[in-house]
Amino acid sequence: MMHVFPRTFTMPMQRGERAATASAAPLTPASYIKLRREASGMSTKEAAGMLARNADEVAPALDLIHALETPGNTARRPETLEALRSVFPFDPDVYRQLVTDPADSHPRICRGCGCSLWDPCTSEEHGACAWASDKACTACLPDTAPVECCQ
What we know:
By secondary structure, this protein is mostly helical.
């Protein structure tokens, strides 16, 4: 039997809530991959299923995704990034910048969905998103007017 105490239990945050409460800490490569996967609406199991070529590869693919979404781990080979990119959208160059560049030269990335200037959210109704704040795009904070940004 599981006991849940209301004051300690919280539901996972939605994109807008996550963006609005984002810390000023630099975004990690692991967080970027996780944000982009979640923004595509995929669970880790779904992404692993699409990454695997057959049933025997699902468990290793799931392990890979969990590893890449764990802070401190990064993809070693460009082929890994390209394989993940075939499953959900993200920008491998943004990922590499998060791995190699100092935090003060990281690209601007939405903390709600992980989009950036190079891989913005798009919809048929609104087109490409814009910046709603320093840490969030208009797709994650839809009731906010776009702000001018200087990358």
